[in-house]
## 1
Amino acid sequence: MTGTRIPAIGLIDRGQKLSFRWQGETLTGFAGDTLASALLANGVRVVGRSFKYHRPRGIFAAGAEEPNAILDVWHNSQNDPNARATLVPLQDGMSARAISGWPSLNFDAFQGLDLLHRFLPAGFYYKTFMAPDWHRYEPNIRRMAGLGTAQKTPDTRHYETRHAQVDVLVIGAGPAGLAAARAAAAGGRSVMLVDENPQFGGSLLWGDATINGQIGTAWARDTTASLAASGAQLLPNTTAFAYYDQNTIGLMEHRSHAASGWAEDRLWSVLAAEVVLATGAIERPLVFPNNDRPGVMLASAVLRYLRQYGVLVGKSVVLTTNNDSAYETATALLAAGGQVAVADVRAEPGPVANAAQAAGARVYAGSVVLNTGGLGGIAWADIGPADATSQRNATSRIGCDIVASSGGWTPVVHLFSQSGGKLRWDETLSAFLPNTGRQAHQLAGSMAGWQSLAECLASGHKAGGSHGEAPVTAIARLPTPLQPYWHVPITGARQWLDLQNDVTVKDVGLAARENFQSVEHLKRYTTLGMATDQGKTSNVNGLAVMAELTGRTIPETGTTTFRMPYTPVSLGAMAGMRHGDLYAPKRQLPAQSEHDAAGALMREYGGWMRPACYPLPGETEAQAVQREARLVRTNGGLFDGSSLGKIEVFGADAAKFLNLIYYNEVANLKPGRLRYVLLLRETGIIYDDGVIARVAEDRYLLSPSSSHTAGVLAMLELWHQTEYPSMDVAFHDVTAAWATIAICGPRVRDILATLATDIDLSDAALPHMAMAHGRIMGIQARVARVSFTGERSYEISVTAGHGAALWRHLLAQGPTPYGIESLSILRGEKGYILIGTDTDGLTMPDDLGMSGPLRAKKVDFVGKRSLTTPDGARPDRRQFVGLLPEQPGFVPMVGTHAITDGPTRRSLGWITTAAHSPTLGRSFALGMIEGGRAHMGETVTLFDRGKTSRATICSPVFHDVEGAKLHG
Amino acid sequence: MLNIPCPHCGPRSEYEFQFGGEPATRPIPASEVSDAQWSDYLYARTNIKGRNRELWCHSGGCGQWFLMERDTVTHEIFRTETIGSGTIGA
């Protein structure tokens, strides 16, 4: 317990105390804290166990780069299972737990694994858990690794997706970003400024700065206020996680302050005329033995916790560095009453170090930390020469509770790289910097390699278009150059590169020896940089170690591809409002209320909610379906067919055009008549079937299947626009405008007689496959004689608003309402196919026995040529037949194969529809069987999951073979 | 998200569009075409890495198919035009 809150420092609101829980214990923090700063202020050291060796780990950083403090956070009964504590604004009532450590964080049952580290090198899992199959081991290994557990209850948070267009999107609200936004706004452009932190200001929030005569924080606050006043859109707590093509940026806005249900998180897609990348830089650590203990931190993080949050993370701090930036941490710690020793690898650290020494820091030139020790944390650090080859070379042991390091700065080039920009290695900064960009963006601040505040402000002002007066700050003296230093040249001790995935210098050495030297191989073999932090603090160090081991330069070794997202984006935010009922909105029938009243079992069929059947009280679905299928033939049936497609086709060339599209001849159809038609793809495969009505010489009404209506319309448009653009024809989908109710069965004429209509319904005026228009009950209507049950049937269509009334009137006449499942038996008994059920992606018309149009029709309709290819003419194509199981009570599963008899069994095809028929009093099936029509009357063996049975191949028409009932 | 300039509606979000692939010229009369030629028309596409000619439909807008010249690597859109205006590729 070492961290303490220092009075009077920091930007937290000490008047607003917040209570939160950590591992079940109640702690307090202040408004303005992050979860990480509040934990440190309460003296919390260990926040997790490491991924592989189960070593205790503490908070390491203060920003998005944090590798260790990945916590399970609950707030308002909602959970973020892998939250980065450094990015979570503290909230009252928040509860956080470690995601690793069993049975407890301080005693991990698997910590013994650390003693076995010699036997757990890189690639250990790949090499060991091979036989018989990695998947056997994976669940246990994953559990041991410790990752957050997703909540079991639905995510009730309200997520939103937003789109925006702006002139200038500035990413990063540090000094450079603020200067850029300010200049762009002064130039009259629309500006959006985003930053992943709750407060704008970036490094000004913890740096020692004066701009335009103001303290840095005050300048940031005033600049933010004037930007808001100018109408700029300001988005704090917002991460720009992706840079897509055409200057489109993905933003993840965390609105953790929002009340429950008020768009807690929003995902933005922003199209910007220009993007200003002011994404800053991340400090990278120096690598030294035992550099993973709780209490080892980044020097900049120590400074930030002190200045921004008023948290002194340790009273005695050892800093180790290869550059000047750690000295600001040193002087700030001294000013806050801490003790500081600095091990600087440079032989002559220069004036900044001298100043720190004068202020009370002990500076060890040409030195580095060679070891750290302490139980569950840090109690001491050994300092020795930077070129030490053994830990015995240590010259001083310093008692301390924090060891903080700085190995230089890594510009945040992630978004630049995602945008297609190329990087170059800069020797002076030992960093990859943006080189050539590909999209419309400007670079500003430390991400572009600028080091001093003056340069960052100047680059920002320029990036924003140099409008208005440039912000002014004192010109800092030139820093003493950084000395590249990648790890201590000791071979015996473990030196960590990637804290989140437990990758050490030795692991990279092993990868180099085993020839996984390409940077992409290195990454995958050792898992370096593959954790949720994506190696923000480890990639450059790992790359440098590999370069050193293979005798190459760092640019020769290369860098891995930066991929989106910059930090994890929750799946809920990705889904936005597209979930539940809104994921794929269901269409409802006009008479929906009547089906509900009749007790229908509603189910989704091709995007429509339709009755499956209408079970009576106490009846199962199977019983209801059998009853309905029987009564339709004996009593008469009532069916809502409103979802069947209705596409009107108009124009002088309507007949000519449709004849070029449909498989069947439709140009010779007489007005008022209907025809059953197939629609093929150009490949000759059946896409849809349906009924086409000719309303007038220049007008047709198509009735595609419910789920294909949009597809058929799109196909008509495509062919008209691209192949036959000069034809005078137009299409209009009127499906939703009409309610269509079908009545059928023996009493159908009596029922029709109850309708007041001017339509002549006599057989002479309206024979089977004819249509008539007029009025029913005074309402615009049409009646079509078409049947999908095999019974005498009338489809009555009225304007959609009258569908419920029509259904009510017809139901009152006593027919049996029936649903899709019952219809499936009725149409099956008649051998009427259902496209996509009885046919598949290989079925051609002749396979169904419909070869007439191919022979008779002269025009070059869609798919015609494909029917005469060798494949289309193959004699062993599967053909549509009926199958009667030998056992009349046995209903084979759909998908059951018919197989050859004999020693080598082979599939001949399969069953596509099967049911028990109440009318036949036995089971029946339909199927696609190889050369089936030539084998009528023969029996075949059915095979289903090891069990065989027999069935006879027969005609697919089982009921009313002559079709007399259609006219009866 | 790409911004696609529909020749009828102007620049609109990619979400409103449907991709139609490389246009293929239908061999006519089909009955006199060899099986191989027909198969090429159905299935063979150049699938160029780079500047390519494609069919797109503004299905969430005017519903019209049009031609677009686009780089399949960088996604840069060079131009779009209505079908039959005949300046893209061919």
## 2
Amino acid sequence: MAYLRKRLFHLVPVFFLVTFASFMLVNLLPGDVVDAILADDDAAVINDPEIRRQIELELGLDKPLVVRYVVWLGDLMQGDLGRSYITRKKISDLLAQRIPVTFQLMVMSLGFALVIAVPLGVLSAFRSNTALDRWISAAAFGIVATPPFVTAILFIWFFAVVLKILPAAGHAPLFLGVWENLKYFMLPMLAIGLSEVPIFLRVLRVDMITTLQEDYIALAKAKGMSARYILFRHAFRPSSFTLVTVLGLQVGRLISGLVIAENIFALPGIGKLLIDSIDARDVLVVQAVVTFAAIAYVGINLTVDIIYAILDPRVNRRAAEA
Amino acid sequence: MVALVRNLLRLPPAADAGSQQDMVRPWWARVGILFWLCVGWLLLIGLSAIFADVLPIRDPLTTNLDGQFLMPFTDGYVLGTDGVGRDMLSRIVHGARISMLLAFTAPFLSLLAGLALGMSAGYFRGRVDAAVGIFTDSILAFPNIVGVMVVLFFLGATLPVMILALAFFGIPAEVRVARANTILFAEREFVLAARAQGASHLRIMVRELLPNVIVPMLSLVLFGMSIVIIIEGGLAFLGVGFPPPTPSWGKMIADGFEEIARAPQVTFVPAGVMFLTILSLNMIGDRLRALTDVKASAV
């Protein structure tokens, strides 16, 4: 438990700093906050003192900053993010509608990335410094140099324009059928997943090469165990720790990828909501999406720490000694 | 031929560093021909961005409605034209300006901030280390594209805001490497000697540690440049970067994408240029890292 306690001591201040930064975004707006919120409304609304006072009251603009932050954080914890002043919808409802789409895309992309990266990483470690290893590394190098939106465009062009086997954009809810739903997720999944592959692959390859030099691997070889058994039974778990940590750190990158992919493929997720709200200058929704993404990042990293402590019990002992 | 392909594919370079024969060859021969091709490409992009206004190329904003979607090498348009007949070559050259401007500012600011924070964390450890860790992890909680996009939204899409935002979200990577390298050197004899002579913390950090820490970080700046180009491209593609008339690679890709079924080359030409630029930066960074890696050179 010592390890998790240490991580909590770290992540709790991170949580407060991150939420405070998100809270401050609205207060950093140049000019009057109420003007910014009412940006697109007509002059009659903007100059209506009644509406202005109501917004000031709802945001608590008459109170000091710290008080407002605490109240805002309290509401946030109860799932109350206020209302959009443009669509008049509850922001929590907007998020709740969009989260499943983003979550599905995220899980599918991560799954796809791991399915590709793990066997290739193990293989290139097992055959390190051979032609195969170099080809895999070169391919990974090429993928790293391709921005995610370019990857997405390449896939759209190839699968939707040339081959015409998958739709270029859109979304179908699950009740229209599983394949109907999945086929709109295939291209975004490929695009995001593929750009995550190189990092996972590289991390796993390096750890795996180190593990394969251990004495117990030599012993297993001497006992005549098959290469596949040694690789996946003996070597994989101790080589996966960095991968798991990186998985948590990559969530940020993944979210960037989701924002881009959802907008290219017109998937109604959180990332699409973010760009739509930026276009509509819907200040509070933009703030809410950013806050949500940041909290999700902290939450996922805490989960990763827990998984890490279970996978490698040594970290607890090391943390207790330190 | 096989030997050439094998040489081109010599990735990762650390694989053959340290062999006897390798030590004899000068560094510029050791990095391989691909490295110099990449340097050449970046020079080409960089110089054409600087001299965009005096180069004998067409105006990037002039439209030609008789020559839309021209293929490369037709009617004197080396890279063809886009949907309203604007010269692609000229737009790429002018678009390089914004990419290069950001690439040569933001990563260096990240480097400065990262050095200050990372070296303090690695040198003082304890509470300073914890505080720096909390700060950088908080930055990481905002995914870089989203972070820059939102800062541009709230503070206005101007060039200084963009540079500072890109620099800010590039800090964590620099901090991590600066801290790790500082820890590596902080207990070495020359540092202890300086301390015994009564040098101040600041003097030790600047005079003794900085020269050792900064070398491996220069390759990081190159990776930072490619990240900046990717973010700028992504933002322009989504239409949340700079306003329309400014040519930008990301914007060109976005414009071409609308007509990808009709004229894919309008998308793929700027995408290819962007790919080669990022590839070159990464390749050079990778080779430099191999050259300056403490472990690889085996002290």
## 3
Amino acid sequence: MGILEVKNVGKRFGGLKALSDVNLSVAENSVHAIIGPNGAGKSTLLNCLVGKLIPDTGSVMFDGQSVLGRKPYQINQMGISRVFQTPEIFGDLTVMENMMIPCFAKRDGAFELNPIRAITAQKDIIAHAESVLADMNLLEKRDMHSASMSRGDKRRLEIAMCLAQEPRLLLLDEPTAGMARADTNNTIELLKEIRDKRNITIVIIEHDMHVVFSLAERITVLAQGTPLVEDVPAKIKGHPKVREAYLGESQPA
Amino acid sequence: MLGLDRKDFILLLVVFALVVLAPFLLNPFPTNSAMAQFNAGYPDLMQRFVIFGIFAIGFNLLFGLTGYLSFGHAAFLGVGSYSAVWMFKLLSMSVVPAIIASVIASGIFALLIGYISLRRTGIYFSILTLAFAQMSFNLAYSVLTPITNGETGLQITLADPRILGVTATESGSIPVTNLLGAEMRSTYIMDVGTWAFQFNVGYYVCAAIMLLAFYVSVRIFRSPFGLMLRAIKANKTRLNYTGLNIRPYTLAVFVISGMYAGLAGGLMASMDPLAGAERMQWTASGEVVLMTILGGAGTLIGPVLGAGVIKYFENIFSKINSSVLESWFAFMPENMQHAAVYVSEHFVGPGWHLTLGLLFMLVVTFLPGGLVEGGQRLSRLFRRKPQKDAARDSTQSNPAE
């Protein structure tokens, strides 16, 4: 029994079958990749996991509890954090302020009317935020306006914000999309470090095969809304169905 | 100090000094000089400066900090005014119960309207608040006449019960609003040479409350609650996926903001005990939006500045008429004088809105951060040199470390 169990999930948008009969089981503390061509339903599946979309059929269980019918913030509080394809950070705020928000969320829950005690007096929050920033090599940028950072740094900050909540499951939606090769390699190293140092399960959606094969322990291939194959990376590489549906002629070395 | 860092504390001190010394600062010209009409240091206008300052500070918490543009904030101002006048009619002429009642009533009203309006964001939220405010205006104007006295407006009369006070004074007239016996309208005039400085009880009561309101707003800005509000403005999606529920935060700030508006309305009624439906009109709601943007939305002091500028224009420029203009341009040949008067009279008197509109356009186009940004640019202009020196100093001191 994995930490995340997706059973028979289906989702239609009008006449379009975005997902049908998706089954997925993610083992605790593993890295599981979901790959597939454009329009395969990867992002739809992810949206069903975090409460942005509600599937028409099937069930999504996280750690034995159903996530269906819960709001995104409630699902997050169960221990699921999500990193978006385009970094979603608080652009108007400094890096430190960005970091403090998940720290407050972790300490105080969904809502805490805390109007009087100044932020600067919240030593525990500041210490927590700084330790995560230091882990992510962002501490020297703590007073920077977050909107003015590079895309790679924004991604790094977003991951840091997710990690500050100490989630049990981290969902990554194309973390290297639109990045140069060097930045991609940095991100891979970063994710490897997170995988090795923390007790965390990672589900990653990715186009870049290089990223997938250097990180994932198991891979699910989606095509037209249904899982085609699920296996370890070595088997996926040579799988004829996968080549036909997705990798085509340009099979990775 | 007072739970503020040094910079905020200095700002608070500056505002305190400005507010306390306003009777001097706003009265720079001798009473008999030609410039005396630009003096703003009379009680009625000074009271309006601080009352609308409170209104704008509260509005800024919602609009500047949280990013929700309410187009119906005047409804809360009106509710505050009506509740205050009812307190004068039923309880006593003391301003204390009136102000408390106005804050509570507008808070409850804001809770109702906010609960529904905050289901939407952006333009839909603005339209919903506008609709509610116009609804309130129409209710006050006609439907709820027994409570609001319709288009005449709610006034205090000699027939009011005033169970804790007196229905009429010994001389048979309507009693006046007071705080512990000090009448709001009483003014001490200090004559210094040809200057006449006016110190009004009502103004200082309003000013004290405004300082308190400003202090509370600074504390909210610097608190975790304020950080969450700024985060809501910056990115709602991220906040949602960070385990935080946005609704209670927006509702809380909407109610706080509505209470500020109600406080302003209650103070208006305390200075002059009547309340009319026109206080809830959409133009009144629009005015506070202008004040906040003109001064600088999202800044601490901006809304107060904006309120001051707009009220100054409304009261000073609107009083300039063509005979005043003729005397200004008297040095010109007659034809030129007529031409100059003809052109400039469109910008003053009833046309003061035109001047305000031009000013607003200029500020929004060239200083999107409002008057506060203008001030910051000016101070940067003067500080540029010292900063370079400081940079050189720090590079020089680096090797020593």
## 4
Amino acid sequence: MDEKKFEQLLLTVQKPGRYAGGEINSIIKDKEQVSVRFAFCFPDSYEVGMSHLGMKILYSLFNSKEDIWCERVFAPWPDFEKVMRDNSIPLFALESRDPIKDFDIIGFTLQYELSYSNILNMLSLAGVPLRSKDRDSLLPLVVAGGPCTCNAEPLADFVDVFFLGEGEKVDLEFIELYKEFKKNGKSKSEFLKAAAQIEGVYVPSLYDVSYNADGTVCAVTPKDDAPFPIRKRIEENLDETFYPESFVVPLIEIVHDRAVQEIFRGCIRGCRFCQAGFIYRPVREKSVETINRQAKALCLSTGYDEISLSSLSTSDYSCIEPLLNDMLDWTKEEKISLSLPSLRIDNFSEELLQKISSVRKSGLTFAPEAGTQRLRDVINKNITEEEILSSCRTAFKGGYTSVKLYFMMGLPTETDEDIKGIADLAQKIVDEFYHLENRPKGKSVNVSISVANFVPKPHTPFQFHPQITKEEMARKQQYLKDCIHTKKISFSYHENRTSFLEGVFARGDRRLGSVIEAAHKKGCKFDGWDEFFELDKWLEAFIECGIDPHFYANRERSYNEINPWDHLDYCVSKEFLISQNELAKGAITTPHCRKKCSVCGANVFGKGVCFEKR
Amino acid sequence: MFSERVFALKNVRLVYTKKGRLRFVSHLDMNRFMSRVIKRSRLPVWYTEGFNPHAYITFALPLSLGFESEYEILDIKLVDDNFDIAKIPDILNGICGEYINFFDVFEPTLKTGLIAAASYEISFDDGGEIFDKLSDFLKQDSIICSKKTKKGDIKQLDIAQKIKNMKIEQSDNNTVLHLTLPSGSEENLNPELLITAFYEANQKEYYCYNVLRTAVLDKEGKLFR
């Protein structure tokens, strides 16, 4: 399309900066000089996608190779989608503005289940056939990576190749192989068979799935020598792992508009509800030196005046205090503020508090996750009420007057007593404030409790549990509301209908592909956004396809059942998940990885916390 | 140590062009953009002394989203009186990307409140079709535009007497209109008002157009410096 006409059309939509490209540090190459063009697609808005660290890492990594040009693509907001469809503008990449249907590889990152309809919508906007079997030629290949590939099955009909685990190595090996096959004029099926031999590559079309009469999976059978099971990939040494020296700096404000420095991967804790805590094992840390060097380079190349440390449970970094000392030194000098997004209650010291408050005094957030000690033991949160109260005391002494607490609802074994426990705990924190002699004077306290809906996820000990129904969730939310008797406690909770759909896809199988396609045809998109989410259309799609969504979300699964994701090996054994679930039933906790190895299976990599001295 | 130096702050005015993909950046986002460019430049600029220090920068005259410009003014303050300011444009051009070009630097002679007008070049992608109609439209004694007031009401405004330095040209592919309109804190007229009024009066065909700000002027009609 004519550039002028295109730019005029941009001026008719909200936030044209989303589609303009031209950001500082974005990468322009000569398309005649590269052998592989990669469209990196984030199936959500520009503001959300540009905040995502994984995309920044892989964008820079791919572009560091001379013969690969990786460009960014985001889901156009519905106002611009209409303009695109009305004017026959196919989905394009931001850098070159070329249609992505002409690219070699179209890659999606799967960060959350509710983005699946956007993936189909983006393929349709690109003019690419949705189903893998309807795309005969080698290019464009449609690939996907990210956490949701740990149960990739609902998208198996649409995606040619999934990458399991961390992408840095496997992606490049895959692209190398693709280059060779493209040069030699090989077919798509020849290439897919060969690619399946790369560790971490899952080609769903090379596996047949059969079902039992009751709808459960009977068997998953590999074809053409495809590996079974398919094991995830990890980076073994994070100090040697590629990390970008610069980020593309967006021209419009995005959700997380700051430099982000990763400090470790994985989590030692093993909270039984938490998928990230299992699929990213084992814990591997970067050294203090690497972190400082990378963080300085990032600030220098972006001009950001804020940097945030990124990891699960940041305060579990083994050298957190020396790291903060070093970082505070130079960030202060450079007038850059440092933020720590993920802190745990039990190792939250006065020193740590002083350090973060010397930078920026935002609210403090903790995640007890459950209201009673019994339920916290069930989920293996491993924190006590006294630890929660003493952390809040420390915070109040330090001048904070508001704390935010995250909880979950609908956890296995949960009773109304556990729900009431959330309100009671919040009340105890309020009391703690007023019992404090040297509390901040003249100020009231605010304890805000934010309650998310528990969704059982694959590869966790709770993968066997039914998700509670929307109706039961609504009742619990109302009950909690009724248990709160003071305005000093504010309560917010999550939309139940989206959690239900999330639960269906999280543990879904290949038969959901037709449902996603039917919902897409009905116009479902941006399901993660309340203003666009239409459950009715989704329910119609389920009925049309003859599929009962409750079969996936609300059913108890036996240990013997073959789960749709059991052939995807995240190196945490099913036996371990079962034993963890049994411990949960008895409210027995498991110590974290640094205290004691619980033999989950992640030591097969021969690296990380599994081999630290205890 | 820092505050002792404050009295010696040196005001510096930079002039740049803003074109291409950067015209989709709003004024507010431009502020963030330039703050980061200045930070990356490591120029000895003055930082505000609040809890979250940031480089002090001021834009003389906001530019509407979608417009290009050949004369954008950015003021900064330096803490180093001896810094050779002639070097600044090259330093900034090395890091601000291909759509911004700094081309002038000097110590300001006028305060930004003294901006009185701005000149524009508006080119229509009309194949020369609207030249006659636009010429006739602009020859009228009274040109009524609808302007939104700050309260959100629509006000009818006759801008015929406010247009200066008008010239209209025709080429094979387009019609180009040059004009100067009041700009700044006292009175501000956006050329979009005129274009909208013209299209409303001639409800036939709509042609794409591009607005380029060519100059910012003081009360005497001289280039604002």
